[in-house]
Protein 1
Amino acid sequence: MIFSYQMPNGESRSIRLTATADGTFTATIDERVYAVSVRRGGDHALLLNIAGEEISVYAARAGNSFYLSLDGVALTLEKPSRKSNRNAHAGALDASMPGQVIEVLAEAGQGVEKGQTLVVLEAMKLEIRIKAPYDGTIQRVLCEVGQAVERGQRLIEMGE
Amino acid sequence: MFQKILIANRGEIAARIIQTCRTMGIKTVAVYSDADQDALHVRLADEAILLGAAPSGESYLRGDKIIAAAQQTQAEAIHPGYGFLSENAAFAEAVTAAGLVFIGPSASAIRRMGSKTEARYLMQSAGVPVVPGYQGDPMEFKSEAQKIGFPVLVKAAAGGGGKGMRIVYSLPELREAVQSAQREAANAFGDDTVFLERYIPVAHHVEFQILADQHGHIVHLFERECSIQRRHQKIIEETPSPRMTPRLRAEMGAAAIMTARAVNYQNAGTVEFIVDERGQFYFLEMNTRLQVEHPITEMTTGLDLVRLQLMVAAGEPLPFSQKDITQHGHALECRIYAEDPAHDFLPSTGKILLAHPPNLPDVRVDTGVETGSNVTIHYDPMIAKVIVHGETRQQSIERMQAALRDYILLGVQTNIPFLQAILNTEAFWQGDTPTHFIEQNLADWSPSPLPDDLQDVALIVAALLEIEGEGETSDTQPPVQTDTSAPIDPWSRADSFRMGGNG
């Protein structure tokens, strides 16, 4: 089976992983082929043998996020989700962090200037301002005060 | 000594206070919000009372509900921890009025030191040096700022933790900085009063721990260097301060005790100073509570500050005098924040799928999260503190590096890579840590790219998790299947692995 992930640097990478008859796996990444065997410890711990080299890792999945700790290095891979294929354009303003909307300073049809604060989000005692990236008109306001939003959730749509 | 106390806090500090109570045979009552139902501190306490919905304003800041919880459970005293209501004079008064003991100083001391402007006046009268500044009518800010000389710091009178604070480099920036600081202060502290101070660009933030009993004895427990800060939030602290001399320590220690005496202080507190390039120190503020970084003092002095707080609050005299207090070796603390270092340290929320703290000699971890805990948007992003002790500063740095490498936290992003970067800088090793350390050494830092060989390992691990169907929820995509040759399923073999993740 082929799996694709978004790496921490944003690049998309693929791997073909197939199970073999003796309970091990064959992994193919680009032109590289590895023989892989895995033993599970407790608590999300895996001891891998990849092409003869042993490496101890911790790994857990939540939804489309894969949280890994490889030899003390923490990283997260993401499965490309449906959302990332949505129309991303300069006027699509998304929440840069999870949080609560504490102010909405724009309404549909309003003309705004570049740099004008449109929405204020709050999380963990940090306030951030979502600002208009250019002079334009607000097309849609997709959030309201008091609403809890996720990272990446669309808040405002401005005209192109 | 108290039979039962209530801890009016959450997270790591609540857990830490409960632990000392357990060693003293004192029963504990925890309070919690909806978001903390399954939290560690709730589990550790003997009893727990639900306060309300997740937002602090409906739970941990509801002094009335907290006092009611103490009365309901017949707790005799309330420990406020840090943050929340710990420096709220009205709360301290209400606790006392309800016939309970507030584990901390008097409401009057809290009030006087809580106003940064009044504290400055007090210190000036007591002869303790303060940073040159102006704390009067905002209409005069423009002319006063010019007298102080730029850069000028605008600070919230009711503030702390960098909130309501702005550095102003030139006059045209002053008005907006003042308005912005006032607004942040109003939101964070309910008081928009701000004042001006000269900004000392090359400085060390050095604070002294003090402890006072109800019988007039006041001691200091040496200093802590807190200069490694990002956006005015401390992230690494250490003791002793690499820049301290015995003479400066004696002078500052005496000034700290004088500060505490000026308000008839009782219980634990911290006097913060700023030390400039020439070794001149100035009073900054006094924190009338136990501080986040208190464990480094505990590691070098061998004392349990929470235990001492309880003893003092129960009316006992301090069990030692100044000359009995000594410090040994070096201690470092790193604060672990649920923040994404790859995205400007914005908050990272989620369920902690695995919390596996380091288990090494002379390494202590104070944490409020465990496997399964939820990190939400409602509270401070600090989820743990790693504290190490070493015979020398060098040894403690090496120990901290090992501890951070071993700390596994899956489920949220953390600032651990950034902490590691700081500990790897030459300047840090040299003890050259003024408050602008991060701007000076790591302004352009971003997380290192993953080495190529680990990239392949990462892909293999993720694919293995997926092929097993671990952690699938209704949001997950089914794997993209293009290869339909069906091999023998290795997972159906009777074998010694344990199937299935915790999900």
Protein 2
Amino acid sequence: MVDFSGWLLPVQYGGILKEHETVRTACGVFDTSHMGELRVKGPGAKAFVNRVVSNNLDKISAGQALYSPLLTEQGTFVDDLIVYEISENEIFIVVNASNIEKDFNWILSKQKEFSFSGAVANESDSYSMLAVQGPKAPEVLDRIFPGEYAKLKSFSFSQLTYQGAGLFFSRTGYTGEEGVELIVKNEVAVALFKTLLLAGAAPCGLGARDSLRLEKGYSLYGHEIDETTNAFEAGLGWTVDMGKKDFVGKAALEKIKAAKPARKLVGLTMIDKGIPRNLYDVVKESGEKIGYVTSGTHAPSLGENIALAYIPADYAGESILVDIRGKKLRAKIGKRKFI
Amino acid sequence: MTKYLKSHEWVKLDGKIATVGITDHAQSELSDVVFVDLPEVGKSVQKEKSFMAVESVKAASDIYAPMSGKISAVNEALRDNPEKVNQSAETEGWLVKIEVSNPAEFDSLLTESEYKASSGH
């Protein structure tokens, strides 16, 4: 168990490699209850949230969810989050554990500016979350919620109940596999976790969660994205709708787009033997630092050592050097989505 | 006899050659070892200074030399099969052999019971 933003979380139950493989071939369950939940309710809730986030909520309707950055006025990241449309007047937002208070206060601060008359509530303390992920997740879920998974497309959700308590059954996830995130009231979370284990899900921890998301090229707040990185250099231009009339950070992003970002986020696959890790330097032959690794690990599904890194936007080579514990080791530059 | 460092390295001394590895307790805390960064033969090492790393998925762990001297051999099998460190940390999963410069350093290392007491098991 380790401390993660003040929460006590399991890194692994029985080995990170085994848990990683279980999610890629069968079904794992993660306790992600540290994540935060905010609710924006009242007339015009959707329109209000649409002015605060950079992606366009017009892309979704009731029962659907959308991944979006939450940006500062400078176009850098307050957080990345998932917005759930319950209705035009009720929006549910799932945020990162480390940013719950920050996001809540940020949205509250915009409420007056954008004249939203409804309520913005932080419901994080009431909710737990279990992510059920893997190619066998649908059959595991059918044993508890028969027929529900088949009703949903990717990034859609249903509101169900479990033992009388409300539950969001959301076809979203952080592993790139089939499955759901179950956002459930605390009172029934333990019972649901036990039922999921009996139904065939294996418990998996933070360690596997990180190697799984990195293989898919997904961002982790505090690594690929933070208050020093803008949406374009982070490769998240697809989550920003510059055609939207207005959103926080739009003006800054227009300038960044025109000037062209100075750096870019790329995928690295090690050629020499070594494991690149967060904050290791990307260097020239001379040793001069030209970038840095945001995340890196041994990728179990690939059998390679991979990383995401910021490098100069105009870097033209096919390979680059990473300073790993004092040695300059070569890496191949490629797409951020490894599998 | 085998002696230990508080930082979970074990050492067996045979004349002037010390064989070094990490304890079973250490490998289970590390979980899956995916890469062993073996040092070069001939490298000088100093007692209680880091001289190589063993890497799991999550992190790189520094390994500290129990005795001073020069690396005389490394466990080549670990290059392709780092998981040997997990499977048999205290025998086949040995890391390096050191030609020691000061055999007397062996005396001040922890005994098995002292190591067990210090690592809380």
